[in-house]
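Lab manual, section 2.4: Encoding a predicted structure.

Procedure: take the sequence of the chain (279 residues), apply the prediction step described in section 2.3, and record the output as structure tokens. A sample record is shown.
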Amino acid sequence: MPVNEQKAVIVVASHKPYKMPADPVYRPLFVGAALHPDKVEEMAAQGYAADDTGDNISEKNPGYCELTALYWAWKNLEADAVGLAHYRRHFAGRNWRKRKEDPFDRVLTGRELQFLLQKARVLVPVRQSYYIETLYSHYAHTHDGAHLDLVRQILAEKYADYLPAYDRAVNRTWGYMFNMLVAERDLFDAYCGWLFDILGELETRVDTEGMTSFQQRFYGRVSEILFNVWLERQQETGLLAPEEIREVPYLYMEKINWIRKGTAFLKAKFLRRKYDGSF
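Recorded output:
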């Protein structure tokens, strides 16, 4: 059904002050606020809500990353459609190919969002292709495949009907990544309920002692893959038709060192060198 522009919200997760899209469809959110109370007032003065208000898991931000924003939106926002973006990565609007001095002039607008949601029920970022890696092998080479093995075990115990979807999704060479999405409220609620139940169980089974701060952020990375599993299962059951999922281009608001990123990808694949930082 058509979604009114004023009743759709895209939360933008950020851990620091950063330029935000001017369109009112966006809701800047300070993530990890519970761990940085000294910054809350400063961020509020710049228009940020804080993820430690209402029902929240703000204190889990070091491991959950932008998922504390997803949880906050799930529990505290009233809207017909809810989405998540990042302060340095946004869904792109129709003019995203045009050269503009300010990349924020190419970000998806509320009006464009309204148009897309007239036909689609879930918006996802254009799929990421790994070509020589499956989602599972890429995660195993760059992080720790044991995390995904535990996820499969949890699914077998709690959501066994998702196992075929899991096996198909993790053995593909592409996926919808970044924890970015916009979804109709019923789908958004169903996804979040399922996701956070699995992650909560995963917390009880992974020993993070000795992990670096970068390694401890695996919950946010595992969830990227779980999103693909969930989408696969919804299509399998007919609850979501393939044409109701719309891929939308995305924009990086800063330059990416693709040579460094590509080199790290190849080293992980062929030399088994784990990632030790973000790009």
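Check your result against the sample. The first helix runs from residue 37 to 45.
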